[in-house]
Structures are given as structure tokens and as C-alpha cells.
Amino acid sequence: MATFKGDKIPTCYASCSIGHNDKHTLPEKLKAIAGAGFDAIELSMPDILAYGQQISENRSELDPNDFATIRTVGQKIRDLCKEHGLKILILQPFANFEGWPKDGKERKDAWERAMGWMSIMETIGTDMMQIGSSDAEGISSNFDDLASDLAELADVFAKKGFRIAYENWCWATHAPTWKSVWEVVKRADRPNLGLCLDTFQSAGGEWGSPVTRSGLIEDVGKYDLDRRWKASCEELSQSVPPEKIFFLQISDAYKMDPPLENKSDRSGLRPRGQWSHDYRPLPYDGGYLPIEDFTRAVLKTGFRGWLSMEVFDGRGPDKYGDNMHPYAQQAFSSLQKLLDKAGAKA
């Protein structure tokens, strides 16, 4: 459990999500995470599928739409978490839900996946699902349409007592910033629909860039960029009610040298998506984004909820080897350091 320093700053809870690595099995991750002092995990669909393949008799890959089999695997994961005293905070990451044409096959598929994921949530014992702002082509740019879709799903989830945490993915098609997803959430106006905020997604979207040699957004000068970033953080701290922040994800990013090409990769993933998937270290572990600013802004709202270390560090094995325990301990220590620096001024 991570604590803040200061007479008026109470305890928050710490969760951990470590990106997929073929050498790191889910049981090993859980043991390391619990041993480091974390309270919970974010359970990702890739980890469920990988563990399902590991325990299957023929080591065959699971169909991500075979929800009956995934629920069976989910129950085993729930039991493992219980053994380690870990809560499953959330099921993630659900992609490309909102904004599809009303009668299109994409919308039908999105709803079928959402209902399947909801059944998995029941099995694993979590009440929250994360939806990332869509990076799909062909979706509506009208925030009322995006809000309507999320409101409709939130109403279905409410019948089960479930919540949706909507996160800005900084490479999203129409809602890449905290302010844009907050606008969608406000328009949807559902008590069980809130925000997942993320230090990387905001600092990496509004201040940093993986396609420039400076590592910065270069359409404005450095002074104006810093001023704009500080103003965004201040606006967040003054405008978002703490109860609408369901949790905060924390990671940094490497400055890319050489920069990434300013185009989508073969899978269609945009540069900031590529950056997100492979180059997100722990705080104070080689990154350069102003994540303390963003963490401080979230704390200034009055938020005192779940904090989650969500890292995807392709360089991690070279730095830490295959033993997950020192890495998990470093994750917890870096979280405490970040809170000391950001929380002391909250």
C-alpha cells in the first residue's frame, strides 16, 4: 500500500500492471507484485490469453472471442490472486468501442465483445472495465455520438453494479487528450462512467513526441509548449471532480533516438501507439516526460483513489533480467518517490 506524506493527504492504494513478456508467466508476475507490496493488479486480456495457453493441454492459443473458455481461465486467475492477497482492480484494455455507424457490423462486434467482457468481469470478481478512446478509422467525430454509445453501455453495466473507466489514448482518432475524454464523460452523464487518467497518455500526447529529435512537440517553441502544458495540468486540477477519476495509471517514456518514423506501422498503429506499447519505463528509470506535473495535478483535484503502475518497457529485460522480483520492488519504490515529489506540494 502506497501512502502520501502530509497531514491532510490520506492513503491511496497501489495497483500494478506489467506488460506481456513470454518469459514472465502470470503466476510469477503475481508473486512478484504481491511481494513488492502492491494491493491489486490490472488484469489484461493478453495475460488471460497467455495464461490460458500455458495451462491448456496442447498449449494451443485461445480464441479471444471464446468467452466461455476465457471465463474458465479467469476463475483460475481469480483463485491465484486470492492466494496472493491481490484484488483484481480492472479488466483491460477494451479498444474501439465507441463511434461506429449505428447499423454497421463494427458496432455489432463492439457490443458482442463488450457483453463477453462483462461476463468475464463477473467471473474474475472485478467491477470495472477500462475502455481506451478509439483509434479506429471510420468512427464519428461528434462527441455526442461517442458519449451516447458510452452512456448506453454504462446503463447496461449499471445493472450489474459495474463501472467503466474511459481513458484517453494519445494516438486516438478524435479523443486523444484528458480534456476530450472528460468532455465525452460529461456529455454521457452516467455515475458509473468515469476517467482513467494516465501520466504517459497526457504528458506524451501534449508535451512529448516520439517522432522529433528533441522528443518534444515542435509546432510551438519550448517556452510556449511548457506554458501550454502547465496550463493544461492546472485546468485539470480545477475542473475534474475527484470522484470522476476512477484511477490513475503511472509510467514514463523514453526519448526516442533515433525518432520513430512519422507514420503508422504495418499493423496500422500510429507512432504514439508504438511508443506506448514498447517504450514506457518506470518513473525515474530513464524516461523524460513531466509526469510529476500531471500526478500533482490529479492529486490537487482531491483524488485519493487507486494508483496503478502500468509499464511497457521493451528494454526492461536487458536492465533487470528475467527475475521479476527486483523489478516489481523498483516499481513500488519509484511510485513512492513520485508521490513524495508530487504529493508534498498537493
Bulk shape: globular
Strand order of the largest sheet: 1-2-3-4-5-6-7-9
- Give the beta-strand count: 9
Report Rg: 19 Å
State the separation between the terminal residues, measured CA to CA: 19 Å
- Return the domain count: 1
Largest sheet: 8 strands, parallel, barrel
Secondary-structure-based class equals alpha/beta
Percent helix range: 40-55%
If classified by CATH, what would the architecture be?
Alpha-Beta Barrel
Q: Detail the poorly predicted runs.
A: 1-12
Order of helices and strands: EHEHHEHEHEHEHHEHEHEHH
Keywords:
346 residues; alpha/beta; TIM Barrel; 12 helices; 9 strands; 45% helix; globular; disordered N terminus
Please characterize this protein's 3D structure.
The protein is built from 12 helices and 9 strands. The protein has one domain (2-343): Divalent-metal-dependent TIM barrel enzymes (TIM Barrel, Alpha-Beta Barrel). The longest helix has 20 residues, at 105-124. It has helices at residues 26-36, 45-55, 67-83, 105-124, 143-158, 178-188, 199-206, 222-239, 271-278, 291-300, 316-320, 324-343, and strands at 13-18, 40-44, 87-94, 128-132, 163-167, 193-198, 245-250, 279-280, 306-313. It is of the alpha/beta class. The chain has an 8-stranded parallel barrel with strand order 1-2-3-4-5-6-7-9, surrounded by 10 helices. The chain is globular.
Secondary structure elements and pairings:
Elements: E1 13-18, H1 26-36, E2 40-44, H2 45-55, H3 67-83, E3 87-94, H4 105-124, E4 128-132, H5 143-158, E5 163-167, H6 178-188, E6 193-198, H7 199-206, H8 222-239, E7 245-250, H9 271-278, E8 279-280, H10 291-300, E9 306-313, H11 316-320, H12 324-343
Parallel strand pairs: 1-2, 1-9, 2-3, 3-4, 4-5, 5-6, 6-7, 7-9
Antiparallel strand pairs: 8-9
Helix pairs in contact: 1-12, 2-3, 3-4, 5-6, 7-10, 8-10, 10-12
InterPro entries: IolE/XylAMocC-like, Xyl_isomerase-like_sf, Xyl_isomerase-like_TIM-brl
Pfam families: AP_endonuc_2
Domain Xylose isomerase-like TIM barrel: 31-323
